[in-house]
Amino acid sequence: MGGAVSAGEDNDELIDNLKEAQYIRTELVEQAFRAIDRADYYLEEFKENAYKDLAWKHGNIHLSAPCIYSEVMEALDLQPGLSFLNLGSGTGYLSSMVGLILGPFGVNHGVELHSDVIEYAKQKLDFFIRTSDSFDKFDFCEPSFVTGNCLEISPDCSQYDRVYCGAGVQKEHEEYMKNLLKVGGILVMPLEEKLTKITRTGPSAWETKKILAVSFAPLIQPCHSESGKSRLVQL
What we know:
Layout: H1 11-20, H2 27-35, E1 56-58, E2 61-63, H3 66-76, E3 83-87, H4 93-102, E4 107-112, H5 115-131, H6 134-137, E5 144-147, E6 160-165, H7 174-178, E7 181-191, E8 194-202, E9 205-213
Parallel strand pairs: 3-4, 3-6, 4-5, 6-7
Antiparallel strand pairs: 1-2, 7-8, 8-9
């Protein structure tokens, strides 16, 4: 997915193009995108592609196209102090942008299947905190990442104000995802090839809006241990 806007020479020009094409529509989202250089989340040898509106994948490392992240950030309708759960948190790029908006009283959790990607995300987070001018300009809600399958979150975990899933969700897992939300909360996920925004309007009431057609790799099903039991993810 991607290719909806022209490539930029640098991060700011990429954001200018996303604004002009109406992918970035609000000031808070624009500030978060400008504060974190997308190229910092690429491996050195691939950085020349960082400002193209394209997804990037290398081994287990994956970044969605900038136009997709823009739609996700806008759809999440983020505000300071909210709790956020990122399912398939990957490099931590999205979680870090979200953290700039959530501020010091927010909650910022990520679940990632691959332990090597968690290590990569922690290195990138550390680099951002140590080197970025932006870090001093925002009250940052630092993301925390745990390894596990996002379909195995412990049922006694708290619900969240905002949830994003970065892998394709089939209809059979829709209810599971919706139940991670507090009443009033927003879930954004690729559901049956459509980026979808679901708002929980009551204990058993939902509003669903399709945002755009997308192509995401599907969620990986849990592998049960030899005992037949799954390892629940504790957040």
